[in-house]
Every structure is written in C-alpha cells, then in structure tokens.
Amino acid sequence: MAIFADFIDERLSRIGYQVETRWSTGKYPEGHWHSGYELFVLHSGVVEISLEGESRLLWPGSAALFPARLVHMTRPVSGRYLCTPLHFSLDLILARTRSDLLTRISAATSGVLIAELASDVAARFLWAAGELRRLQYQDSSPATVEHLVGLVVSDIVYQSPRTGDQPRRSVVSEVIHHMLTNLQSEVSIAELARRFYVSESHLRHLFMSNTGYSPHRFWRKLKIQRACELLRADGSVDSVAAAVGFTTRHGFERAFYKEMGVSPAQYRKVIKLG
Is 149 exposed, middle or buried, given 0-12, 13-18 or 19+ CB atoms closer than 10 A? Predict the structure, then answer.
C-alpha cells in the first residue's frame, strides 16, 4: 500500500488531484494514508470504511469526505463494489469552501463527512469525475481543474449533515441500518417490507439493483460476517448462532457453510492455525 500512497502523493504534488472509477473486491484492505483530502463516492455495493479504526457504513449513492492523513481502508460488506475516489489538494478549492470544509470536518464524528447524494448531485459528480479523469493525463487549464474539483467538493460539504443532524437515508439504507442493528432477529422479509412501508417485491428490486443481492441473502451475509467476528473472539458455536438470530445450531451451520464454504468449527480451527 506504500506504493499506492506514494503514487497519490506524486499526483497531488504535480497536478493537485487524482481520480478514477473502479471496481474493487477489497482484496487488499490494509490501512494506508497519504497527503491531501479524499472524496470517496460509492456507486454500487455496500462498503465499510474505517478511519483510524472507527468504521462507518456507506450505501450506493453516498459519499465520505475526510483528511487522507487519517489511516483509512475500505472493504465490501458483500461481493465487490464500484466507487470513485477523488484525491485532491486543498489548494484546488476556493477559500470559502475550504474554510467551510475544515470547519465541518473538525466538528464531524471521527473527522469524516458522510452525505447521501441527491440524484442531480450524483449526476454532476459523475460528469465532473469523467472530465477530471480525461484532463489528468494532458495539459489543462488550472482554472478548469479548480472549478471541477471545487464543484464536487462543495456539493458534499453543503449536503452533509451538520453536527447533531442525521443524514438523509434512502429506503435501502434504512433497511440495511435496521438489519445491522438487529442481527439477532429472525424477522421475515415480508415483515421487514411492511415495517418500511414498501411491497416485498419492491424491496427485493431495490436490494438487487443497489447491492446485487436479495434482502434475505444480504441479511444472511451480514449475520455470517458478524458470526465470523464472534468465532474469532472464541465464542462457542451455539452462543454465536443465537447471537446472530438462528434458533438451531443446524440452521446456523448450514447457512454458515453456504456463505463461507466451511463449517463454523472448521473456520475457527483455520483462524487459530493462521
């Protein structure tokens, strides 16, 4: 990861920014840091972003803006994800936006601004990111670059919630938040749809289009992810099964095997040997 950080530092010192849109599997989730600031926009998938050891969850259409000197890493909650990280120097944005950015970040939890982008803001970001990608490998007007970077950064600064406010959430983000805080529950997807005032078919459509998984499969992946953490902490198979909402050990072992390819006992043995 040191090579990657050096590359970002070189780009920032030379042209002031680096941007790319990419698919990632989170295969190498080591923490890293570099100069400048990072605006991380998520287009598809669900990602856990960790800054200085504190984790936040991002959904499709959401963004995180933070000082890149903080040790940070991202990993998918499930599958792979599509994102656009924009690394930039503060010198590229106007003094007023820069001042507001620094004020908002200093007041934000863990030093990171989280925003859920309105459709017009998301579209504007994709357009600006495309222009910046095109310009970063050719001679371009500094004023044009400053305008494009300032455009997308100001969108995030002024869309992110102020201290004490809650970010605006979509139905998918609300449901995922509910899933994460109720991993011990066995609520059916039909009951979940009723809780959030959508039809079961619409909820399935929303999850498939935003995460690539059905609500049932996604919730199961979250439960098994938590089960892995508890098994690594030496929880017994029975206690872990109960903690993630399985009423029988057999049902838990079957679900665990479907996700991980090994039984819970085999998983813990491999972790200990490692």
Answer: buried
